[in-house]
Design brief:
By secondary structure, this protein is an alpha/beta fold. It contains twelve helices and 17 strands.
């Protein structure tokens, strides 16, 4: 039910030219400045558009909106229904809905006849770009380089720089960070993330950039059992020709005990509701950490459709007794990786060929259940190993004013407000950096509009958009004590 989180560089852009943070009172002040224009901050920009008495500005370093360009392969779809667009779950009357996008592009009838509930990723990217291009509050081509708290004027001073080197400044009474997350690569691959191995050792975020090169190799190993890993493995399988001889041998390794489908039952999906967030937030920190690890199949599994397509591709390649040029290995951890000299046989040791375009790689792996080590040789490695939130460098100038937890993460309240020093009267909000405090719905598009509406109400100091008190049939946690006369369970205090 989740979508891969946005890239860490999906943020920033510029506006005012002129004096720096210490400038005079003539300098323009915004009620809210957003750093980053990925889907989540774009949702907030769309929902706040036209709100009376609220001046907003959203900044991003890129020249234009883009969303996971390295994974926008043909045939890939969102893992959430189209109703989980930027605005509909909070304001279905908004002009920035996906349905209005279809109307504006004369695609309503084709969409209706296609009977789609899950839309193509490429169209979702185009929809978001359309919104970003039309919202006057969204500005691109400016990288935020510094954020300071101006205690005298009680505003955040935000410095940003254009690609051409022009430095600009804006001020904000409140700030929201939507800078996305950084790709995570297994530690054994870190020494190989150099220009010498570019295109052969990479994160799946860059897959499409190097897709043609990878499709021409003898052997490619995909690491990671989530949706991205499945889509990369499937795409590589489809590059094999009908004879079974062309295209790369595809090896798919996963730490998880199985290539498991994502939980997609109607009741199971209620974990992606405000009700579950409230329950999760009230749990002890240690239990929250355990739950995030235990619930991997709720947000890190693979869609049943993608798993079925992979199975169908393998079935086709086994017709007539042919052995598919692929291997699937769950329950496997990558222990070590090192380059081999050019000309070394790559593959499973069963004659997959010699890669004549450069040296391959020797991987040492451990099967976790058997505690057995084994080696494989491969021509390239694609790490589809997810993303993680990190502290943006531009926040270093005011890091001492943030109340970090014991692991250096934000402490975040129910309105997505970061705990700051008492000397800071302005509010700092974050989006998609609260997995540890709000649970597995943090990176999910389903809750994007609801979270943006929650932040918008907090920023405005009033109810701009009504958010539901209850959204799930499930009661998370013990039922409230109401007494025997009500017929409800009585919960005894411990």
């Amino acid at each position: 039910m989740t979508t891969e989180p946005t890239h860490a560089d999906e943020y920033e852009h510029g506006h005012e030219h002129g004096p720096g943070p210490g400038a005079g009172p003539e300098y323009e002040i915004y009620d809210l400045v957003g750093v980053g224009i990925g889907p989540f901050n774009l949702s907030l920009a769309a929902l706040s558009d036209g709100t009376p008495g609220l001046r907003t500005l959203f900044l991003d370093a890129k020249p234009a909106f883009s969303w996971h360009p390295g994974l926008l392969m043909e045939g890939t779809v969102l893992q959430v229904p189209f109703l989980a667009d930027l605005v509909t779950m909070a304001d279905p009357t908004s002009p920035w809905s996906y349905l209005n996008y279809l109307r504006e592009h004369d695609r309503m009838f084709p969409f209706f006849f296609s009977e789609r509930f899950h839309i193509p990723r490429r169209e979702y990217d185009h929809y978001c770009r359309w919104v970003a291009e039309h919202l006057p509050s969204c500005r691109f081509d400016a990288r935020v380089t510094e954020v300071e708290w101006d205690e005298r004027r009680e505003v955040f001073a935000v410095t940003h720089r254009s690609a051409g080197g022009v430095v600009s400044h804006v001020r904000a009474r409140q700030l929201v960070l939507g800078v996305g997350t950084n790709p995570v690569v297994p530690e054994p691959l870190h020494p190989l993330l150099t220009p010498a191995h570019a295109g052969r050792v990479l994160h799946s975020a860059d897959y499409r950039t190097h897709r043609a090169l990878l499709a021409g190799l003898d052997d490619v190993t995909v690491v990671g059992a989530g949706q991205s890993g499945a889509e990369v493995a499937l795409d590589l399988l489809r590059h094999q020709d009908g004879s079974g001889a062309g295209g790369p041998y595809v090896r798919w390794l996963a730490r998880t005990p199985a290539f498991a489908p994502m939980e997609y039952s109607k009741i199971g999906l209620e974990h992606f509701t405000p009700d579950y967030i409230r329950y999760f937030r009230a749990l002890p920190e240690e239990r929250r950490e355990e739950l995030v690890r235990e619930q991997w199949q709720l947000y890190k599994g693979v869609s049943e459709e993608t798993l079925a397509e992979i199975h169908d591709e393998l079935y086709e390649r086994s017709i007539g007794g042919t052995e598919p040029r692929a291997a699937l290995h769950p329950g496997v951890v990558l222990v070590a990786a090192e380059p081999e000299r050019a000309g070394t046989d790559a593959g499973t040791g069963t004659g997959t060929g010699t890669d004549d375009s450069g040296g391959g790689y020797l991987l040492t792996c451990r099967h976790t259940e058997q505690d057995a080590l084994f080696e494989v040789r491969t021509s390239a490695i694609v790490a589809a190993t997810g993303y993680a939130a990190t502290r943006p460098a531009f926040l270093d100038t005011m890091a001492k004013l943030v109340d970090w937890d014991d692991q250096g993460r934000y402490r975040i309240d129910g309105d997505y407000r970061v705990a700051l020093d008492a000397s800071v009267s302005g509010a700092l909000y974050v989006q998609n950096a609260e997995l540890h405090t709000h649970g597995i719905g943090a990176p999910d598009l389903t809750l994007g509009a609801w979270r943006a509406a929650t932040i918008l109400n907090a920023v405005a100091g009033r109810t701009v958009l009504r958010v539901p008190e209850r959204a799930a049939w499930t009661t998370f946690g013990a039922p409230a004590a109401r007494g025997p006369e009500s017929g409800a369970p009585v919960v005894w205090p411990s």
